[in-house]
Every structure is written in structure tokens, then in C-alpha cells.
Amino acid sequence: MDFVSFLIQTLNAVQYGLLLFLVASGLTLIFGIMGVINLAHGSFYMIGAYLAFALVAQTGNLFTALLLGIPLAALLGALLEWALFRHLYKRNHLEQVLLTYGLILVFEELRSLALGDDVHGVAVPAIFSASIKLSDTLSYPVYRLVISAVCVLLAIGLYILIHRTRIGMMIRAGNHDRDMVEALGIDINRIYLVVFALGVTLAAFAGMIAAPVSSVFPGMGNQVLILSFVIVVIGGIGSVWGALVAALVIGFADTFGKVLVPDYAGLAVYLVMAAVLLWRPEGIFKS
Amino acid sequence: MSDWLLEAQGLQSFYGSSHILHGVDFRVGRGETVALMGRNGMGKTTLLKSVIGLVTPRGGRVAFAGGEVTGQPTHRIVRRGIAYVPEGRGIFPNLSVSENLRMAARPGPGGRRDWDFERVLATFPRLSERLDHGGGQLSGGEQQMLTIGRALMTNPDLLILDEATEGLAPIIAREIWGIVREIKSSGIATVIVDKNHHALTALCDRAVVLVKGQVVFEGACAALKAQPEIIQRHLGV
């Protein structure tokens, strides 16, 4: 592989990894703090992508679509937490898996009823539609760099939220001892609502900004869900920092696996997971 | 309404299927220091948890600062002015010392802000040397100082200390008792559970003794000290 191809694949790996991080960070927070295995988390990515498609079709502009889509996703998250997930926290994992698997089917069916089963595309916003020329034949789309930059900013924002703010302290404290948080006069249910809505919004946002680079198609959340669980397990359950590192590792394993050993690319991610778990059974960063 | 700060009447509480509290009445006056006594397994912790709603009583009622709080969620009950230091301390080991304190900060009932970060550190100078340490890295005594300091950050009218000095070296325990006296003199009511009956009766105003989920003695600490047979019969090991 020459240097320019290597550079392009590296940028792709970083961009894919960061996008996965947005989905996985919410998953790891919800799993780590509320103890809920949320199989429907990938659906939020799918919903985000379809929201982007539908809203761009209406408004003709991805930015307007984001402006409308983000609050809609947050609202959906808050509503689901209030109506369903809040009743799952103290249930066992089997019941959680049953409900959240059921939700995948419900979301796919609703998506099918509302928007059909066709594959769609979303146009890259005009101001980011240029490409940077890297060699005579190869260039790199600006929009992918924008995705990476936005994801990095969100990762920094998430870090500040969790490690530098009072609500972040409460979230981490709730991760350890929910009764003690309540006994200090903090409404843990409200913390859970915020964390859940945040997780849903991040996953849906990932779907929205990914829509122009990957097509929008039925079941697109499933692949992301599985990779996100791999990331959560590798990174250490509940650790956002671990999710970031693990997401980048998976981004590289997946991207370079497809380039270097295309016949076995599907295995690359899981080989990495197995290797990490043999080395550190509780993940890279145990929270 | 009565003058009691905390008034629990006829509490019936269960732990799983076992009946722990059999109609317990428990009261604390404003600024009063109450010793809650009894051997292990007699219901002391269950009583304290029932008061703040961490255990939901199946019978009886709880009023705090003149308002009925029975059945309310814990965070709403304690916001009326209760701070709880549980047995085993309840430190957040994944938060730093400074974060443990700051996350709890809030004005007390009526907007009182007597206790803040600076005053807590002045009261517990050891903590100020360890602000960036993880809560889990502290010694037992430092952890107890941290939980008491964290409780004070909520500016409570009532401080509940379950097993105030359990597992602490005598010299550290003495330091804790000194701090409890300081808190008492600042006008905060306290409920204290501790195995050291001598230290406890030396500073409490009133004592309540539980046996098998029922109150067998309630009265002034002076009266309890004058009746060593009660201590012997219900608390002796």
C-alpha cells in the first residue's frame, strides 16, 4: 500500500471509529449506569439516519434537518425512558433483552410503514462537498473530515460533561451507588432520564451525520449495534474513555481488515475483541 | 403539628419477607442528639432507612419538620433537611475527595448556607491534603471524615450517623467523637448508632433502645446511665 492509500484508509478508520464512538458512548453509559442491556440502541442510529433523510427531503438542507432532528431524538429518548426503560432497571437481563429486542422489531416496522423499505441517499451539504486532492488519482472528501472533527468535539464535550461538571459527578456516583446518590438529595431518576436521552441523541446524531456517506437502508442499525457492543466490552463497561479508545481500535481493525485481508475482514473485529479480552477480561478501562 | 423535628409513628418494615420493625415510634427534637441503641440485627439500620425512604415501611407514618413524608422518594425526604451517613460510609470511590464533597453541596432548609466547601475543609484539615485522591484511596478514618463532611455540605437540620466509629482505630474514633460534639454544639440534631456505649451516652441527650424491632427503652441518656441493668440486659454482649 502506498502512502496516499494508507493515509486515506487511516482517515477512514478514524472517521468510522469516531462515528461508532458516538453510538457506543451512549450504550456504555446506559449499560454501566442503569445496568440495562439496550439492544435497541442501534435502532436509534437507524432512526437518526432516516430522520436525516426525511427531514432533508422536506427542508432540502442537512443543517436544518439536524436542527430539527436533534431535539426530536432527545424527546424520543426521554419518552422511551419514561414510558419503558425506567421499569427495566431492576429487572433481570433476560427481560431487558426481550423488551429491547421487541423494540428493534417495532422501530423497523414503523420505519417500513412510514418510509418504506427502499435504500436512500442523502446529499452531502454543498459547502462540504469538495474533495482534497492527495495525488493525481486520489482525493479525500471534506465531509468525512468534518464528521471526524465534529465527533472529536463531541468526545471532548462528553469528557468535560462527565469529568468536569456536577451532573457528571452525579452520573459517575450513580454508577457506583444509586441509593447513596438518592440519600444525598439527588433525584437519580432524573439523572437516568438525562443520561438515556443523551445516549439516544448521540446515536441518532451519528446516524444523521453518517447518512450522506453511508446509504440509508433498513436494518442499518444492526451492524452498528453489534460493533458498539464489541466496543463497550473492549473498552470496559461504563467507561466513556474506554469506548473512545476501543472505537478507534475497531475502526482500524474493520477498515484495514477490509483492505489487507478482504476474505477474512469479517473476522478482524472479533479477533481483536478476543485478543483484548484474553489480555484484560474486564476491558481496557474498567470503570 | 408537634414540635418534633422528626416524628415516626408505628413503623412496620420488612426486609424481604422478614418482619423487622414491629410498630416503632421514633422522635428527634430540634438540635437534639439521640443515641439509637440495640444489638446487631435488632432493626436500627432498617429504622434509619425507613425514615428516609430507602426502605419503604408497610405501615406507620413519618413526618419531618412538620410535613408528612411517608412514602415519598428518598431524595425528596432528605431535601427537607436530613443527611445520612450509612454504615460502611457510602463513599464514591470513583470520585475524588473534592468531587465527593462538591456533588452533594446544596443550601439547607430555608436557604441556609452555613456549611460550604471551605468550612468542611477547615473542620477536616486531613481532607484538604487529599482533595485529588480517589475516595477509595483514603483510610477508614479519612473516609468517615469525608462522609460526614459530605453530609454537612447539604446543610442538614438532622444528621444520621449509622455506625459512627465502626472499624476505626481508637485515636481516630476519638477524633470523630470530637467532630460529633462540634456538630452537636452547632445546633444540628443527630441520630447516632455506635457500639461504643460509653462514648455515646457521654454526649447524647436521649436514648432509644431497640430489641427485635420494638422500642424497649426511651428516655434521657442520664436516666439510661443510672440504670446499668438496662444496658446490661439489652446491649451487653
List keywords for this structure.
heterodimer; A: 287 residues; mainly alpha; two-stranded antiparallel ribbon; 74% helix; B: 237 residues; alpha/beta; Rossmann fold; six-stranded mixed beta sheet; four-stranded antiparallel beta sheet; 10 strands; globular
Round the mean pLDDT of chain B to the nearest integer and report it: 93
Residues in helices of chain B, as a percent range: 25-40%
Q: Which runs of chain B of at least 5 residues are low in confidence (pLDDT < 50)?
A: none
How many DSSP E strands of chain B? Answer: 10
**Greatest chain-chain interface?**
A-B, 19 and 24 residues
Tell me the name of the CATH class of chain B: Alpha Beta
Q: What's the number of helices of chain B? A: 10
How would you characterize the largest beta sheet of chain A? 2 strands, antiparallel
Give me the secondary-structure category of chain A: mainly alpha
What does this protein look like?
The complex is a heterodimer of chains A (about 290) and B (about 240). With about 290 residues, chain A is mainly α. Chain A has one domain. Chain A has eleven helices and two strands; from the N terminus they run H-H-H-H-E-E-H-H-H-H-H-H-H. Chain A has a two-stranded antiparallel ribbon. In chain A, a hairpin with a 5-residue loop joins strand 1 and strand 2. The N and C termini of chain A lie far apart (about 40 Å). The N and C termini of chain B lie far apart (about 40 Å). Helix content of chain B is about 35%, strand content about 25%. Chain B has a single domain, classed as P-loop containing nucleotide triphosphate hydrolases (Rossmann fold, 3-Layer(aba) Sandwich). In chain B, about 45% of the residues are buried. Chain B has ten helices and ten strands. Chain B is globular and about 45 Å long. In chain B, strands 6-7-8-3-9-10 form a six-stranded mixed sheet. A four-stranded antiparallel sheet of chain B has the order 2-1-4-5, covered by helices on one side. Chain B has about 240 residues and is α/β, with parallel strands linked by helices. In chain B, a hairpin with a 2-residue loop joins strand 9 and strand 10. The chains are: A mainly alpha (about 290), B alpha/beta (about 240).
